[in-house]
Design brief:
This protein has 216 residues and is mostly beta strands. The chain has a single domain, classed as Methylamine Dehydrogenase, Chain H (7 Propeller), CATH 2.130.10. Helices cover 3% and strands 51% of the residues.
Length: 216
């Protein structure tokens, strides 16, 4: 998909807080823009040189971070939201009912952490199976997203209760991180995460599962 630069406008009192694009949330190959205004999530599709509203959903609280995840054959991408209270919510578009369906959730912090935290850094692995969130205060949360795209449960999965999220401590504040691109021969079960610390140091860690993080 060709890269584009988007300019988004909003009516007074409904300022855009998060915008993500281009994404393909509703179907593979689409060129779409996800926008959060207050507690309203909107998805627009770019067609005929303009953005056309496709989907609107109400969310319970304001969002501070938004990203997309793996696109599976025949499906759109997952939409991942992190709220101001450090709650993780994940949605998938259901083409049969033409609306977003919330498929997973997790509380990643508490009121004390949320009150002092800055906007969290987050990234998703290239295979879409792992999400890493730096919560500030030197705490990192790792979530296992494997098989979420195929989830048919009528209610969202609690990732913490299901044992699909764990936390680990880091020695220095992180200001940026991303998963390194894998070569085709690499083991799909192992991802390498690179982090840049506030003191200028760099670090790499191998994430093998939600039960293991090993410094590289």
């Amino acid at each position: 998909m060709a890269a584009r630069s988007y300019f988004v406008t909003a009516q007074p009192a409904t300022a855009v807080e998060c915008a993500l694009g281009p994404v393909a949330i509703t179907a593979p190959g689409e060129e779409e823009l996800a926008v959060v205004r207050g507690t309203t999530l909107e998805i627009f599709r770019f067609q005929d040189a303009q953005f056309v509203p496709v989907c609107t959903e109400q969310i319970r609280e304001q969002v501070c971070c938004m990203l997309n995840s793996l696109q599976v054959t025949g499906c759109g991408e997952l939409l991942i939201l992190i709220t101001v209270s450090l709650k993780l919510v994940i949605a998938r578009y259901d083409a049969q009912i033409n609306e977003l369906r919330w498929i997973a959730t997790a509380d990643m912090g508490n009121a004390a952490i949320a009150a002092t935290a800055q906007e969290p850094s987050c990234c998703c692995s290239s295979n879409g199976k792992r999400l890493v969130v730096y919560l500030h205060g030197n705490v990192v949360a790792v979530a296992d997203l494997d098989e979420l795209m195929d989830s048919q449960q009528p209610y969202p999965i609690d990732l913490k209760a299901a044992g699909r999220m764990f936390y680990t401590q880091v020695d220095e504040q992180i200001i940026g991180m991303e998963f390194l691109e894998r070569v085709a021969a690499d083991d799909d079960s192992i991802e390498t995460l690179a982090a840049l610390h506030a003191n200028g140091g760099k670090e790499e860690a191998q994430i093998q599962s939600t039960e293991r993080v090993q410094a590289a």
